[in-house]
Structure formats: structure tokens, C-alpha cells
Design brief:
With 125 residues, the chain is mainly alpha-helical. The protein contains five helices and two strands; from the N terminus they run ααααβαβ. A two-stranded parallel ribbon has the order 1-2. The radius of gyration is 14 Å and the shape is globular.
Amino acid sequence: MNDKCAAGTGRAIEVIASLLEVELGDVGRLALASTEDPPRISNTCLLFAKSEILLLMREGVSVQALLAALCHGVAERACELLRKVGLEKDLVITGGIAKNLGVVSRIEEKLGMRALIPPEPQIIG
């Protein structure tokens, strides 16, 4: 959710996964399984985003749709940053987020290109 710090974004995904009682490793898969249009989570602040998600849960939005919204938001912010710095021919995604297929597929969709994912993306560099 955060556009300044990868650790903050990763932590936000962990917190929301816990809130929704979903294993971290299942977030991307469940997000991709959503058949609903994901609601927009407008806040980049984890505290306010969590409040938004709780409200959406009370309104009956499915866990899959909420996870899709989370992945969509992370991908949107990543793409905004990528557009600011410019894109090269090859896009490589590293770090823990590379293991979240929901975020990776949204980034690929938004940029219109396939991402290269190293076999162990969390131990690159």
C-alpha cells in the first residue's frame, strides 16, 4: 500500500492477510480467484486501509475480492513508481512481492509486459 518503502508494503499485506485469516502464501492465489470487481482501497496508510477493509467486510464483500483489491492497490502504486523512473525492456520483480501472483499478474497486466521472476526472489542482490 505504501509508495515509499517495500518493507511497509510487505507488512501491510501481512497485516491484511492476518485480518482476513488467510495464509500469506495464499493471498495472490485467492486474489486471482475473485470473480467480483475489486473495491478500491484508497488509503496508503495501513491503519486507515485496515479500517476500510473492515467496513467492506461488514458490507459483505468477499475475502477474495478484498485480497484482489489489496493486490490491485499494491500493483497500482508499483506501476506509478515505475512510470516515474522509466521502464526498460526487461522487467524483473524481486523481493517477497514476487511470490504474490496476484500482485505480479496485475503489474504485468497494467504494464502490458511479462515480468522475469528469479527462482529465489527474496535473496537477490
